[in-house]
Amino acid sequence: MLQSIFPATDPKKDVFFGVLPFYHIYGAVKLLLFPFSLGLPVVLTPRFAPTAFCAAVERYKVTIALIVPPLLVVFARDPAIKQHDLRSLTMLFSGAAPLGAKLVKTVRERFLTVGADVCITQGYGLTETSPTTHLLHPKYSESHVGSVGHLCPNLEARLVDEEGEVLRDVNPGESGELWVRGPTIMKGYLNNPSATKASVTPEGWFKTGDIAVRDKDGFYTIVDRRKELIKYKGFQVPPAELESLLLQHPDVADAAVIGVESKEEATELPRAYVVHANPSVVSTPSACMAFEASVQAWVAERVARHKKLRGGVVVIPLVPKSAAGKILRRELRERAKKEEATGQVKAKL
Question: What positions does the domain AMP-dependent synthetase/ligase occupy (predicted)?
Fold first, then answer.
């Protein structure tokens, strides 16, 4: 199914590079099974390190690398890119988490400075969908940057609004929860009928839990996770949108946004956890507080009123993420509870 829409490859030329864990479906299918179905070799490393990645590309003439968005954040800044011959690299294929347009542009321009004309594209899927359901073909990687592309063959998709009294399919340009159906979608969760009933409709539609938008040409863009949307006084605030914006700040190396409960306002407030690009600059409490306030003001100038970081900004050494590169928001929520209990963060309402 994927071969029919994946860019053409040459067994005599193309080489895959992988650093994804095999216990995650992204690595298991896309590094263990897919390359071999194409007759392509795969270069593997046990863990990601910028220098090791660049050295492997140079040594084995890697052409295609499967990555996750956090690795692009590293590519945008790490000096290793300028220390190796990366001209063989033609495509970075990202998955597991949304990919921001600004980050793509920054990394592509950085690779061009060392003579590597790299196409950066992405796909979408879940463990329950085996995994890929959408793929942005490289020919659209610049014209539709940020999109996960078209629906794969043999699958059906709906964007559904369940907020009102009546379930409805949304119009093009409107956001709704992505539902998919087809031969590669799971039948259910093993020995967990309640979870299956909550996720799969009687007609066989799997509810992904992801909010998406489809344009008139059939390109899908993932907006956020349904359960991760922050509700500020009735307004929906997608964390991914704010995270993408924060990564455009010149002094922010990484970022994560969650909602924190405000008893005074009886609503959730968006809070950002950011990693400074140069940690030594925020080594003192006063410098840290000044930077947090400046980031909060910077964001306020660029978003609608309900999307302001009213829950504050907190500098942390590292954004907690899974092996697949997904932000572990649960850990940040636990941290936020402790901060609220000790009064460490003062929200600006």
Answer: 11-190
